[in-house]
Design a protein that fits this description.
This protein is an all-alpha fold. It contains two helices and no strands. The radius of gyration is 17 Å and the shape is elongated.
C-alpha cells in the first residue's frame, strides 16, 4: 500500500471512532434529560440549559475530530 492509501484509511478510521463517541454521548444526554423532565416537569428550565451546553461540547469534539482527520489526510 502506498502512503495516500494509508492516509485515507487512517483518516476514515479517525472519523468513524471520533464521531461515534460524541453521537453516543448526545443520545445519552438527551435520554437522561427527557427522563428527568418527565419525572419533574417543573425543573425543565434548570435541566435544559446544562443539557444544551453539554451537547454543544460533545458536538465540538466531533468537529475537532473532523479537523484532525483532514490534517491526517492532507498533510
Amino acid at each position: 500500500m502506498d502512503l495516500e492509501t494509508i492516509k485515507t484509511i487512517v483518516a476514515g478510521a479517525t472519523i468513524v471512532f471520533g464521531v461515534v463517541t460524541p453521537a453516543y454521548a448526545i443520545g445519552r444526554l438527551a435520554t437522561q434529560a427527557m427522563k428527568s423532565i418527565g419525572r419533574n416537569p417543573e425543573a425543565a428550565n434548570k435541566i435544559q440549559t446544562p443539557m444544551v451546553l453539554a451537547i454543544a461540547f460533545a458536538e465540538a469534539i466531533a468537529i475537532y475530530v473532523l479537523v484532525v482527520a483532514l490534517v491526517i489526510k492532507f498533510v
